[in-house]
Design brief:
Oligomer: single chain
Number of strands: 11
Order of helices and strands: HEHHHEHEHEHEHEHHEEHHHHEHEEH
Mean pLDDT: 92
Bound molecules: pyridoxal-5'-phosphate
Structural class: alpha/beta
CATH topology of the largest domain: Aspartate Aminotransferase, domain 2
CATH architecture of the largest domain: 3-Layer(aba) Sandwich
Low-confidence stretches: 401-409
CATH superfamily of the largest domain: Type I PLP-dependent aspartate aminotransferase-like (Major domain)
Strand content: 5-15%
Helix content: 40-55%
């Protein structure tokens, strides 16, 4: 019956995690998976989230949520993403709760595919490893726009040129902050140019905001989304609260769509159709936690302070790593470590160097060269530096140019 099924191809990031777990060495460091760890190497339980959990009444029966999710959560997300709860905006934005950021992308993709016979999307090369699969599974034709210049900046000219080949109505996938995997974000001036071109060509921006707060803070990080709305442009936004609330297993995400006030009721209806036939309604607990934090002034302030703490820790790791490596490798340009933002740094390490990191030093890095900065702490930074110095100093190869890694991994 099932003998013609294709062989399973492991997701490269999840497969790396399995290999790390199976490694019997005690001195090993996982810089592969995209999870924020604290100074003790643990996934933090935020105090604001713990307080919200204590406040939630454990005696409330577990009933089904509405298809579109918890009302208080949807309201709180709208405010966090758009920074605005005026009645006017409420009429133009539909937000539904989804199963993580991944669920938001998938529901958004299916929703768009249901309204377009030949859906097309252009995404950065490289981008998060799951983007292509999600949109292809929903029936999209996927193309890529170049993302990085050889000197490690956002490739605005390449992106604009690629947009000229897209038909009106095609979707542009954008990371509003902390681009995964490079950590390179467009400047505001570059965002302006991107949004101008998107409007001129009648393209549809789909923002994937999985790291709000990790680059410059929650409001600054949503700037491109808010600017898009300020200009009156339609857009979709997938939000994830896995990282910035440290609620990975709760699957808390949201999909927001900015449309015209005449369209929103229909948009909500069609989103409910997509959700109903896939998983009927979202999980309750994580969204209740996020809503309880965001809706309470004191918990909201506490969460913002904790988020700022995570952001500052990552900046500190970047600075320390840069200083330690620069002392050992004075001829290597390591400025990328300080310029990139968020959890990831694109190291430009070659495949051979990545293999050596793992086999000789027990340091696990994704095959694209993406390093999870948030996996480094005071206890392992010396080991990570030693390993990097060994593999970078051992070869006469220059650091690979980011554009050479063209596969969307
Ligand atoms: C860019 C990007 N989008 C979406 C996601 C998925 O988020 P979630 O774990 O909430 O489904 C991730 C997770 O790593 C991501 O990096």
């Amino acid at each position: 019956m099932f003998k013609n099924l294709p062989d399973y191809v492991e997701d490269p990031i999840l497969g790396l995690f399995d290999a790390y777990r199976a490694d019997s060495r005690t001195r090993k460091v996982n810089l592969g998976i995209g999870i924020y760890c604290d100074e003790d190497g643990r996934v933090p339980v935020l105090a604001s989230v713990r307080a919200a959990r204590e406040r939630l009444d454990g005696a409330v029966p577990s009933i089904y949520l509405p298809t579109e999710g918890l009302p208080a959560y949807r309201h709180a997300v709208r405010e966090l993403v758009f920074g605005d709860t005026t009645a006017d905006l409420q009429e133009r934005v539909v937000t539904i709760q989804t199963a993580g950021g991944t669920g938001a992308l998938r529901v958004g993709a299916e929703f768009l595919a249901s309204t377009n016979a030949q859906p097309r999307i252009s995404m950065p090369a490289p981008t998060w490893v799951n983007h292509q699969a999600i949109f292809q599974a929903a029936g999209f034709e996927v193309s890529h726009y170049p993302y990085c210049t050889p000197d490690g900046r956002f490739d605005i000219e390449g992106a604009l040129a690629a947009m000229r080949d897209l038909p009106a109505g095609a979707v542009m996938l954008l990371h509003p902050c902390c681009h995964n995997p490079t950590g390179i974000d467009p400047s505001r001036e570059q965002w302006e140019r991107l949004l101008d071109a998107i409007a001129q060509r009648a393209l549809l921006p789909f923002f994937d905001m999985a790291y709000q707060g990790f680059a410059e803070g929650p409001d600054d990080d949503a700037w491109a989304v808010r600017e898009c709305v300020r200009r009156g442009m339609p857009c979709l936004v997938a939000s994830s609260y896995s990282k910035n609330f440290s609620l990975y297993g709760e699957r808390v995400g949201a999909l927001s769509i900015h449309a015209s006030d005449l369209e929103t009721a229909k948009v909500l209806g069609q989103l409910k159709v997509v959700v109903r036939r896939s998983y009927s309604c979202p999980p309750a607990h994580g969204a209740a936690l996020v809503a309880a934090v965001l809706e309470d002034d004191a918990l909201n302030a506490q969460w913002r302070a904790e988020l700022e703490g995570m952001r500052q820790r990552m900046l500190g790791v970047r600075a320390s790593l840069h200083a330690l490596l620069a002392a050992e490798l004075p001829d290597v340009d390591l400025s990328f470590l300080l310029q990139q933002r968020g959890m990831f740094s694109y190291s430009g390490l070659s495949t051979a160097q990545i293999d050596q990191l793992r086999s000789r030093h027990g340091v696990y890095v994704v095959s694209s060269g993406r390093v999870c900065i948030a996996g480094i702490n005071a206890s392992n930074i010396a080991q990570v530096c030693e390993a990097l110095v060994d593999v970078m100093g051992r070869t006469s190869e220059p650091r690979e140019q980011i554009t050479r890694i063209s596969s969307p991994a």
